[in-house]
From TrEMBL:
<keyword id="KW-0378">Hydrolase</keyword>
<dbReference type="InterPro" id="IPR001563">
    <property type="entry name" value="Peptidase_S10"/>
</dbReference>
<dbReference type="InterPro" id="IPR029058">
    <property type="entry name" value="AB_hydrolase_fold"/>
</dbReference>
<dbReference type="Pfam" id="PF00450">
    <property type="entry name" value="Peptidase_S10"/>
</dbReference>
<dbReference type="GO" id="GO:0004185">
    <property type="term" value="F:serine-type carboxypeptidase activity"/>
</dbReference>
<feature type="signal peptide">
    <location>
        <begin position="1"/>
        <end position="24"/>
    </location>
</feature>
<keyword id="KW-0121">Carboxypeptidase</keyword>
<keyword id="KW-0325">Glycoprotein</keyword>
<protein>
    <submittedName>
        <fullName>Carboxypeptidase C (Cathepsin A)</fullName>
    </submittedName>
</protein>
<keyword id="KW-0732">Signal</keyword>
<dbReference type="GO" id="GO:0006508">
    <property type="term" value="P:proteolysis"/>
</dbReference>
<keyword id="KW-0645">Protease</keyword>
Amino acid sequence: MTASAIFCACALTMTPVLSQPVFAASEATEAATSQSAVPAEEASTTEHSVRINGDSFDYKATAGNLVIKDDKGDPSASVFYVAYTVPSDDDEPRPVTFLFNGGPGSASLWLHMGSFGPVRVATENAAPTPPPPYELKQNPYSLLNKTDLVFIDAFGTGFSRGLAQEGDDKGKNPSSKFWGVDQDVDGFARFITRYVTVNQRWNSPKFLLGESYGTVRAPALVNHLQDQGMGFNGVILVSSILNYGADAPGLDREYVGLLPTFAATAWYHNQLPQKPEQLAGFLDEVRQFAEGDYAQALAQGHNLPAEQQRQIAERVHQYTGLSVDYLVNANLRVDQSHFRKELMRDSDTTLGRFDTRYMGLDKDAIGARPDSDPSDTAASSAFISTFNNYLTGQLDYHADRPYQVFSRDAIMTWDWSHQVPGSGWPVQMPYVVDDLGNAMRTNPGLKVFSANGYYDLATPFHATEYDLAHMQLQPQLQKNVQIEYYPSGHMIYLNEKALVDLHKDLEQFYDNAVSY
């Protein structure tokens, strides 16, 4: 969703980008401001209330920054956060959840303004949100009834910034020292440790909640923090990508992972030759075909006999609505952008990448790929505008520089290598399945919740299923992984009905993950 935009994930192209809407301060402005002296730790705290499930919850909202230090004890960054805390009525500590979006290089206003915070911006469902004025309303689906919430902005986004240190290259943005898979995890770990210490939350049940690239950060982060002695109760993954190597050239795993989402999309838009009544049962059939006959056919490469290729194309046609000839000409391999252009070409309509329920129009109908992503532009202005108003008007937080929604420099210079647990050297593209598996084995009480949108082509649900099934967990740990599905896209909460169901599921997840 954005003004020019990359909204949340290029997981299925060869460009490793999981971004969020782009807007706000220039990189030059951010870099220049980053050279200033170490800022003081300051915060604005205001009091509010919200009704959830018919009950009223009084809470404090704290918008501020904390300074983190490197191993030498030198200040390395100032991290911006907004925390929502509810006074505890008894002697038991309330859970605390740390939430963040992805990018890499995105601030966390998307989760903040759309999902589980105490306020929520009103947007249209599967359609463009009209221009301002926008409505910011109480969020009856906030998780404040179960947990305190801390929304964190990544380095170089929001008001979070790296600090210049002795020996730094004066031509580089000081935030760039955190622009990498493991560098980012280390910085987030230092912030969470600082927050927990300052606010005396070491004995609180703890959770991480990441969306999009945030689901790369969360598994590596929980494993890293637990190695340092901080225990966690749960990890919540919203619209996941756990393995950036799945779409490497020569591998066909990408197409197997995409097929069930193609099928769900064709079902939603009534493009199937014979549409079944129920989506869930239909997708079980598609999964079986994708992992069976389809995967086996792709594995043969150009050795697949022409007759068998056409037979498989006939099956894929039944599941996706794409023509047999188109599928044969594509060698049975259709990527997400081709699908978005082709499925409804006859009606001169394209589909969204982050949410295929959204429909758009291109300049013409002859191209192979869409000109833009209608799900990317549908609600960005509403999120960005309301957040800026909310920050100053209700949180009483006034900054001396613009809030930076997205850092293009971060994603363009990101270090994608990752040190996998137990490996002697880093892998070149992040694979965090092993991080999460290791975290669960070393902490058998750790629970994992995976939320997936049926209509998300950026991080398709079947690819997530495959990755979560390859953590090599023992049977007694497998029950700690819960996977749920919702009739929405990448930002599940844009569909209010899906948010209602997601909130109910997470209420139960928190109850199961916290035991006194």
